[in-house]
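Why do we bother with holo predictions? Because pocket geometry can differ from the apo form. Keep that in mind while you read this record for F0G.
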Amino acid sequence: MGVQALGGRRGVIRKYRDWLPEIPEEAIATLGEGDTPLIEAPRLSEKLGARLYLKFEGMNPSASFKDRGMTVALSRAIATGSRACVCASTGNTAASASAYSARAGITCFVVVPVGKIALGKAVQVLAHGAKIIQIEGNFDAALKLSQRVAEELGNVSLVNSVNPDRIEGQKTASFEVCEALGRPPDALALPVGNAGNITAYWRGFKEWREAGYADTAPRMLGFQAEGASPLVTGHDFESPETVASAIRIGAPASKEGALAAMRESGGLIESVTDEEILEAQAMLAREAGVFCEPASAAGVAGLLKLAREGRAPEGLVVSVLTGHGLKDPDTILSRTSLPEPVPATFEALTGVMQRVEPAAG
Ligand code: F0G
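The structure, written out:
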């Protein structure tokens, strides 16, 4: 009998078994991923002129969407007798692979660009006891090396999204969105880095339609950071740069999947600036109460940009917030800091409180 996650969240393998590759019960490695909230965002909706919902994937066990695919990839690795896995990562894949490897009892190697992964993600890897290898190169170099390691060593499973099991697991988010809304949304906006997630969502929506649960599928709206936007410019970036470290990728492995999603859905893939990303992150935290990491705000940043240009999608719109804000404390701390302490007196406290404007609404 595989490990159970009791309570409300059964994990995506048990919830969507018929839609996923076959996994023997005893091989299932789950932490109760999936079933993340779809949160209505009325104030942002007003700005867009559409009804916006936020799919908060930061509520997964390792605090990003990666867990949906990782449960499938690690369970299949166990089923085929793997004793170790490897991945390249900008941080979240590493955190998720570390957690699920600990759950599964196998060794995990993560290859990351030195100094370029957010603090919280590095801490997660260390906490789970995975082997972290920092390379003097970027994510794209890390991915090439990890692929070669998996090919040449043979007994090490590659758990990046070039592993089809990852995409299979991640597509379950589309099913949840359709189930929660009672129909597919009219548009879905999300950040694009290595392009596995947009590929997975589109596959999910197509399968939902093919199964006869809906007649429609959403327009897929993908957003890259301007300094790392190979799918927008049409050429790879040698030295991608963005504050959104999770999507600092110059040569997306699932490029074809992303372009097909855009084409087939009548959608788009465009870029947003770092400033637009940070503004959207702040707006989500302050006006919707949802704290996501910078990369995760790229979808909303893109929607706001489209709205400013009179091109906002209409109807029911979902933006995927891919990872939790706590993963990247440095980005917030570089823009704000804790105030000086005051004496522990009523007067000092009320003095400070009187200087603060009450929140509108
Ligand atoms: N948002 C976050 C928070 C991510 O961590 C990633 C990718 C993406 C969006 C983009 O998803 O690559 O499927 O297009 N992070 C990977 C990692 C690359 O290593 O954690 P994608």
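The chain has a mean pLDDT of 96.
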